[in-house]
Specification:
This protein is an alpha/beta fold and 691 residues long. The chain contains 24 helices and 22 strands. The structure holds adenosine-5'-diphosphate and magnesium ion. The site of magnesium ion (MG) has 5 residues, from helix 11. Pfam families: DEAD, Helicase_C, RecG_dom3_C, RecG_wedge.
């Protein structure tokens, strides 16, 4: 039987090849695709609102009589139509208009229009409202319906999409949409069939509960939301299956490398570190590729855990790759690991994008021959020219943006190209539980939920930049007492060039004002060697004060630094600030973090900085960040398409996450269902979080 998936949109009236091409940009090829092109909100045009009751930002229908119509010359020529009803008046402003519009909208005309209220010179205005002259009577309240608003692409207007969707709906009687969810399940949650749900969201019946629809809580919408979340969950489980369809080299814990390593450490592992290690040890000894995410707050000691995992692989005669997101961090790991592992007779190689020429050739040769047992670097590690001899474990540090595609691609890098390497992913960005369940369904998770003993809390203060002088004094004082400090410059611009410039200016200013301190500068535009040199001198205590851009955000570890100033913290996310703050509080002495904001601070901004001041619990902060900014920002994947839902909204729909996670594994065995749901909701080109 034909299904809507097989009916091309060109079958619809008015869809030629040009329009079909545009629709394709929205991922719409079949009539079914069109039906799953869902409205993301509704406009309530069901009733006329008195002009006098409008507020800025309202989107509303008003109706009245034209008092006068003027051509205003100003900076931009516009047509200004003043509309009046019994309660007040409103200006309709058109920047593009023709003579006939001007005639239609002349004095005395009766006009109904729909627009968004903006502040104007003499009162409220609508810019380019949709309007009708001499409108028909409004339908009675019980027959009025909401107007759906669709995602658009260039060259397709809202009314066009609306009418196409209406046409598509007319196919539903003959070709209902296949329902892949078990009927018992729908009954349990009192949800409508897929066909009914789709029909309703495109064309809400008169009398359907407006507030539920406006908020996305109508059962029809919730049915779709649940299916969408389920499809995402299934796609992640499928990735996991695809990776684990390969075998991995079982890495049995043998030899005394781990014991010798632990003996030389100046501290004992925390209980949490031991606990996580036992998860990892267990995973690594299986012939199934490990897929494990280790979450641990800043300073919880993830690096030692990474080293122990590496030692298990090395002890079993295999190679390990450790990848970090930035040169600085990779370099720091390289130094750390050399200090720890070389005394045990282990050979390391360093591969980053900036290692070139002969040095690179030599490093690659050592990796290919297996002479290097541990390879450390940036993502340059996984370029095509890097060949491993016996890679069995990949450790990815601080890279929660490491997407599903990368995880899939790693399959190919293992021993003989057929054994998949084990994967260990570390992140210090605590991910709220619900988000982790949804975004990392393909990974097992362990949490290092304990900090090493003796850590002092970091005292955080929120200070206006009008008191910058005082803060500079404070830096002087701390450094005189033998401490070190960070001064972090931030810019709202993503442009790295501007960020670096700002840091240069600040560095010059502070060097000038603090002549008895040794001041260093590090930013993303320095050469790797220069950066490394600056970091090294700061680490050695040759520099007192380090001016930096947010490049030092993750991982940098200098225990003697006890003061961090963060400029314009209101521009950064809470999780990022928490990361930055975590650069201090790593040693014995009391530490301070100064959030130096630029007033005025919005009330939301104030609340956020206060949350940071009052808490040092990364998970709590991450929950707050999620509430305030949404999952895309928290995961750092806003631009990447990961966790971009058509309908689902993380906050509103978090109640579904647990049930969806419970039902997904049971469905995995039904491969047709899985394929169909993934295709329906994620399309052909599955949009995972690639970076
Ligand atoms: P993160 O989890 O942020 O990557 P690191 O691995 O950089 O943290 O560890 C932070 C600091 O804590 C390092 O100086 C590290 O040597 C130290 N450390 C790690 N584990 C312990 C422990 N069990 N006891 C004391 N200090 C530890
Ligand atoms: Mg770290």
């Amino acid at each position: 039987m034909t299904s809507l998936e097989d009916i091309c949109v060109t079958q619809l009236k008015g869809v030629g090849s040009a329009l079909a091409g545009k629709l394709e940009k929205l991922g719409i090829r079949s009539v079914q695709d069109l039906l799953f092109h869902l409205p993301y909100r509704y406009e309530d045009r069901t009733r006329v609102v008195p002009i006098g009751s409008l507020r800025i930002g309202d989107v509303a229908v008003v109706e009245g009589e034209v008092m006068k119509t003027d051509l205003v010359m100003g900076r931009r020529r516009s047509l200004q139509v003043t509309l009046r009803d019994d309660s007040g008046f409103l200006v309709l402003r058109f920047f593009h208009f023709n003579a006939s519009q001007k005639n239609q909208l002349s004095e005395g005309a009766r006009v109904r229009c729909f627009g968004e209220v903006r502040p104007g010179r003499a009162g409220f205005e609508f810019y380019h409202p949709e309007y009708q002259v001499n409108p028909p009577p409004m339908p009675p309240a019980n027959q009025a319906t909401l107007t759906p608003v669709y995602p658009l692409t260039e060259g397709i207007q809202q009314p066009r999409v609306r009418s196409l969707c209406q046409q598509a709906l007319s196919y539903l009687n003959r070709f209902p949409i296949k329902d892949w969810l078990p009927p018992e399940l729908l009954a349990d949650y009192q949800l409508p069939s897929i066909t009914e749900a789709v029909r309703l969201v495109h064309s809400p019946q008169a009398g359907a509960p407006v507030h539920l629809l406006m908020e996305g809580r109508h059962p029809a919408q919730q049915r779709l939301v649940m299916e969408e979340l389920l499809a995402h969950q299934l796609s992640l489980l499928q990735v996991r299956e695809q990776i684990q369809a390969r075998e991995a080299l079982p890495l049995l814990p043998t030899g005394d490398l781990a014991d010798r390593f632990l003996d030389q450490l100046p501290f004992q592992l925390t209980g949490a570190q031991r606990h996580v290690m036992s998860d990892i040890r267990q995973d690594l000894s299986q012939p199934l590729p490990m897929l494990r995410l280790v979450q641990g707050d800043v300073g919880s000691g993830k690096t030692v855990v990474a080293a122990l995992a590496a030692l298990q692989a090395i002890g079993a005669g295999a190679q390990v790759a450790l990848m970090a997101p930035t040169e600085i961090l990779a370099e720091q790991h390289y130094q750390n690991f050399r200090g720890w592992l070389e005394p045990l007779g282990i050979r390391l190689a360093w591969v980053s994008g900036k290692v070139k020429g002969k040095a690179r050739k030599e490093a690659l040769a050592e990796v290919a021959s297996g002479e290097a047992q541990v390879v450390i670097g940036t993502h340059a590690l996984f370029q095509d020219d890097v060949e491993f001899q016996r890679l069995a474990l990949v450790i990815v540090d601080e890279q929660h943006r490491f997407g599903v595609h990368q995880r899939l691609a790693l399959r190919e890098k293992g021993v003989g190209g057929s054994l998949a390497p084990h994967q260990l992913i570390m992140t210090a960005t605590p991910i709220p539980r619900t988000l982790a369940m949804s975004a990392y369904a393909d990974l097992d998770t362990s949490v290092i939920d304990e900090l090493p003993p003796g850590r002092k809390p970091i005292e955080t203060v929120v200070v206006s930049d009008s008191r910058r002088d005082k803060i500079v004094d404070r830096v002087r004082q701390a450094c005189r007492e033998g401490r070190q400090a960070y001064w972090v410059c931030t810019l709202i611009e993503e442009s790295e060039a501007l960020q670096c410039q700002a840091a240069e200016v600040t560095a010059a200013e502070l060097a000038d004002r603090l002549p008895d301190l040794k001041v260093g500068l590090v930013h993303g535009r320095l050469k790797a060697a220069e950066k490394a040199e600056v970091m090294e001198s700061f680490k050695n205590g040759e520099l007192d004060l380090l001016i930096a851009t947010t490049v030092i955000e993750v991982g940098v570890d200098v225990p003697n630094a006890s003061l961090i100033i963060i400029e314009n913290p209101e521009r950064l996310g809470l999780a990022q600030l928490h990361q930055l703050r975590g650069r201090v509080g790593r040693g014995e002495q009391a530490s301070y973090c100064v959030l130096l904001y630029h007033p005025p601070l919005s009330s939301n901004g104030k609340a956020r900085l206060q949350a940071l001041r009052d808490s040092q619990d990364g998970f709590f902060i991450a929950e707050k960040d999620l509430e305030i900014r949404g999952p895309g920002e928290v995961l750092g994947t806003r631009q990447t398409g990961m966790m971009q839902f058509r309908l689902a909204d993380f906050e509103r729909d978090k109640g579904w996450i647990e049930p969806v996670r419970e039902m997904a594994p049971g469905l995995m065995a039904q491969s047709r269902t899985v394929e169909a749901l993934i295709r329906r909701w994620l399309g052909e080109n599955i949009r995972y979080g690639d970076v």
